[in-house]
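Slide 14.
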Amino acid sequence: FIVFGLLNILTGIFVASTRDLYNYDQELVIQEELSQQESVINQIRSLFLEIDSDKSGTISFQEFKKHAKDRRVQAYFSVLQMDVSRAEGLFRLLDKDGNGDISIE
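Slide 15: predicted structure.
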Protein backbone atom coordinates (compact mmCIF):
# COMPACT_ATOMS: atom_id res chain seq x y z
CA PHE A 1 0.00 0.00 0.00
CA ILE A 2 2.89 2.32 0.63
CA VAL A 3 4.07 1.85 -2.97
CA PHE A 4 0.64 2.81 -4.31
CA GLY A 5 0.58 5.83 -2.04
CA LEU A 6 4.00 6.95 -3.26
CA LEU A 7 2.99 6.40 -6.89
CA ASN A 8 -0.11 8.48 -6.28
CA ILE A 9 1.97 11.31 -4.81
CA LEU A 10 4.51 11.14 -7.64
CA THR A 11 1.73 11.17 -10.24
CA GLY A 12 0.22 14.26 -8.57
CA ILE A 13 3.58 16.02 -8.59
CA PHE A 14 4.13 15.09 -12.26
CA VAL A 15 0.67 16.38 -13.26
CA ALA A 16 1.17 19.64 -11.34
CA SER A 17 4.63 20.15 -12.88
CA THR A 18 3.30 19.45 -16.37
CA ARG A 19 0.45 21.94 -15.87
CA ASP A 20 2.87 24.60 -14.64
CA LEU A 21 5.18 23.97 -17.60
CA TYR A 22 2.25 24.23 -20.03
CA ASN A 23 1.21 27.58 -18.53
CA TYR A 24 4.79 28.84 -18.75
CA ASP A 25 5.10 27.72 -22.39
CA GLN A 26 1.81 29.40 -23.24
CA GLU A 27 3.07 32.68 -21.76
CA LEU A 28 6.29 32.42 -23.78
CA VAL A 29 4.31 31.87 -26.99
CA ILE A 30 2.17 34.93 -26.25
CA GLN A 31 5.23 37.08 -25.51
CA GLU A 32 6.94 35.91 -28.71
CA GLU A 33 3.86 36.76 -30.79
CA LEU A 34 3.61 40.24 -29.24
CA SER A 35 7.31 40.80 -29.85
CA GLN A 36 6.97 39.82 -33.51
CA GLN A 37 3.98 42.11 -33.97
CA GLU A 38 5.89 45.00 -32.43
CA SER A 39 8.84 44.30 -34.71
CA VAL A 40 6.63 44.34 -37.82
CA ILE A 41 5.00 47.59 -36.70
CA ASN A 42 8.41 49.20 -36.17
CA GLN A 43 9.57 48.06 -39.60
CA ILE A 44 6.44 49.47 -41.23
CA ARG A 45 6.92 52.79 -39.42
CA SER A 46 10.50 52.91 -40.63
CA LEU A 47 9.38 52.11 -44.16
CA PHE A 48 6.69 54.79 -43.96
CA LEU A 49 9.26 57.40 -42.95
CA GLU A 50 11.48 56.35 -45.84
CA ILE A 51 8.65 56.53 -48.39
CA ASP A 52 7.55 59.94 -47.10
CA SER A 53 10.21 61.70 -49.18
CA ASP A 54 8.82 65.21 -48.65
CA LYS A 55 8.64 64.64 -44.85
CA SER A 56 5.02 65.81 -44.72
CA GLY A 57 3.96 63.06 -42.31
CA THR A 58 1.79 61.56 -45.03
CA ILE A 59 2.41 59.51 -48.15
CA SER A 60 0.93 60.70 -51.43
CA PHE A 61 -0.07 58.24 -54.15
CA GLN A 62 2.94 59.34 -56.21
CA GLU A 63 5.31 58.60 -53.33
CA PHE A 64 3.59 55.28 -52.72
CA LYS A 65 3.66 54.24 -56.38
CA LYS A 66 7.32 55.21 -56.72
CA HIS A 67 8.34 53.03 -53.78
CA ALA A 68 5.96 50.15 -54.54
CA LYS A 69 8.54 48.85 -57.02
CA ASP A 70 11.16 48.52 -54.27
CA ARG A 71 11.72 44.87 -53.30
CA ARG A 72 11.81 45.75 -49.59
CA VAL A 73 8.43 47.45 -49.84
CA GLN A 74 7.05 44.42 -51.63
CA ALA A 75 8.48 42.15 -48.92
CA TYR A 76 6.88 44.20 -46.14
CA PHE A 77 3.50 43.99 -47.80
CA SER A 78 4.02 40.30 -48.44
CA VAL A 79 4.52 39.78 -44.71
CA LEU A 80 1.15 41.45 -44.24
CA GLN A 81 -0.29 39.15 -46.92
CA MET A 82 -1.00 42.10 -49.20
CA ASP A 83 -0.15 42.37 -52.90
CA VAL A 84 1.63 45.66 -53.56
CA SER A 85 1.39 45.13 -57.33
CA ARG A 86 -2.13 46.48 -57.10
CA ALA A 87 -0.83 49.78 -55.78
CA GLU A 88 -3.79 52.00 -56.64
CA GLY A 89 -6.38 49.73 -55.01
CA LEU A 90 -4.13 49.18 -52.01
CA PHE A 91 -3.57 52.91 -51.66
CA ARG A 92 -7.34 53.53 -51.68
CA LEU A 93 -7.80 50.92 -48.97
CA LEU A 94 -5.16 52.58 -46.82
CA ASP A 95 -6.48 56.10 -47.53
CA LYS A 96 -9.27 55.87 -44.96
CA ASP A 97 -10.49 59.46 -45.23
CA GLY A 98 -10.17 59.65 -49.02
CA ASN A 99 -8.02 62.80 -49.03
CA GLY A 100 -5.34 61.29 -51.31
CA ASP A 101 -2.74 60.84 -48.57
CA ILE A 102 -1.94 58.05 -46.13
CA SER A 103 -0.90 58.95 -42.60
CA ILE A 104 1.10 56.76 -40.25
CA GLU A 105 -1.94 56.47 -38.02
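Speaker note: The longest helix spans residues 2-51.
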